[in-house]
Amino acid sequence: MAPSLKLSLVLFFACSLFIQGTVAEVLCEKLPSNLCAFAIASSGKRCILETYKNEQGDVDFICKESDVVVERLAGYIETDQCVNACGVERENIGISTDSFLSSEFTTHLCSSACYQNCPNIIDLFFNLAAGEGVSLPALCEQQKDNHRAMLTLLSSDGDIAPGPVAAPLAAPVLY
Predict the structure, then answer these.
(1) Structure pTM?
(2) CA geometry: angle 160, 164, 166, nearest 5 deg
(3) pLDDT attached to residue 11
(4) What is the pLDDT of residue 3?
(5) Which helix (H) or strand (E) holds 36?
(6) SS (H, E, C) 39-92
(7) For the ranges 7-16, 43-52, 60-69, which has the lowest average pLDDT?
(8) How many CB atoms lie within 10 A of CB 84?
(9) Which of 21, 36, 65, 77 is most buried, with most CB under 10 Å away?
(10) How far apart are the two ends of the chain, measured CA to CA in Å?
């Protein structure tokens, strides 16, 4: 191989490493607060949004690296499409299992637009649910079954017994 070709290949390889390293680097501390939640640093650790008091004494947001490692998604920032499809908000402080109590939230999370297309958010809530002893797939199946039951109930063309009817109010007695 000619020396100039070797030099060209070495330069190409070195430049490609440099460009790849600078473009793909995600550091939680460098992310703005509106991209922090649902981001994963290049180290593989989840980014979390925290509050702090700034110099003026006002509460502000800061993005930090957590101790939680995500195996497969290092250097990932969640898309707006997934945030919207899954019904989550980027500027929430902390994530709680209380969100599972909302049928509106589970409807979004279990929708195919979220569950099939947003592995980062699903991984996060899968682990959150598992920590509470709940299976996210089972929760989603239950949510789908409840939705099917409601659709069946609504489409049953009058086969439902009418609800109770209130007795007419008696006329007030005047003294």
Answers:
(1) 0.67
(2) 150
(3) 40
(4) 55
(5) helix 33-36
(6) EECCCCEEEEEEEEECCCCCEEEEEEEEEEECCCCCCEECCHHHHHHHCCCCCC
(7) 7-16
(8) 14
(9) 36
(10) 116
Q: Give the tens place of pLDDT for each residue, 78-121.
A: 999 999 999 999 887 878 788 888 889 999 999 999 999 999 99
How many of the other CB atoms lie within 10 Å of CB of 7? 10
b/e burial code for range 92-108 (CB count within 10 A of at least 16 → b): eeebeeebbeeeebbbb
- Cα 141 to chain centroid distance, Å, stands at 19
Q: 105: which DSSP letter?
A: H
Question: How many Å apart are CA 45 and CA 32, to the nearest integer?
Answer: 17
Residue recorded with tokens 């996060």: 124
In the block, residue with structure tokens 């003026």: 56
CA-angle at 118, arms to 112 and 120, nearest 5° = 145
